[in-house]
Design brief:
This protein is α+β, with helices and mostly antiparallel strands. The chain is about 60% helix and about 10% strand. It has a 4-stranded antiparallel sheet. Helix 7 (about 125-150) packs across helix 12, helix 8 packs parallel to helix 11 and helix 8 packs across helix 13 (about 290-305).
Length: about 300
Amino acid sequence: MADDEQTSKKALGDSDNIVSQLGDGPIDRLITKFENASQIDDDGIEFWDARDLQELLSYSKWDNFLEVIQKAKSACSGSGQDVENHFADVRKMVSIGSGAEREIEDIRLTRYACYLVAQNGDARKTPVAFAQTYFAIQTRKQEIADEDAAQHLPLSEDQKRILLRDEIKEHNKNLASAAKGAGVIQPIDFAIFQTFGYRGLYGGLDRLGIQRKKGLRAKQNILDHMGSTELAANLFRATQTEEKLRRENIKGKEAANAAHYEVGRKVRETIREIGGTMPENLPPAEDIVKVERRLSKAQEQIAKKSK
């Protein structure tokens, strides 16, 4: 489509301008901006117009953004999903001034489609990093909300921690598999690989440095003493590194280490951009093993009372 068919507003500027436009509260500003762009169709399905997402991700040309959407469609198909269920071609009328209108093409994107578009966007654009974080967090929040609705009970911090800790255990297996495919084979090599990810996310701190910062003993697993916010950041680091290693077909230990560091650093930059607390400054949480035991006992007592 020619450039004169552009109908999006002026693209968002640098990160400071983005933050200044996003309302009250650093995290709320980010969430509000993206949620205000979402719509609900007649069937009650949430969607975003690609033209609106184009603006949010700071793409000035529709043709360039269509290339990103095409990559996202390929990723959607590769994941076994029906592309048409997530990317629906539509046409709509827009004003061109003086009361006149014209018809343009657009695409209705589901939340999953938006996530894929963000993952395939230009990582050098700060709004793209914002979107990657937003849709990852919102997708996880939706999963938790679905589980909450099924149980008819609000999730406590302890329950969130257990869910996220279990997720990290599974995704670390996937990450190890992807790292092995890149050439990280020996246990010592994987330990080094993990260290690079932590250093990227924690401002240069390795596992021992994180333990010292948080007052943990050498034998205490740092993941077992993270609150839900910190666990979510590490889950995002692990999933995005796995995707990067596979998507870019990265080979060699050094290249894999560099990729893990870069993803960790990018997550850290995003946390800073939205005004979040740096992970090393978050307080340590109670040993999750004790939390699991306590919740298990509580569930047993509830079960006994219901008999």
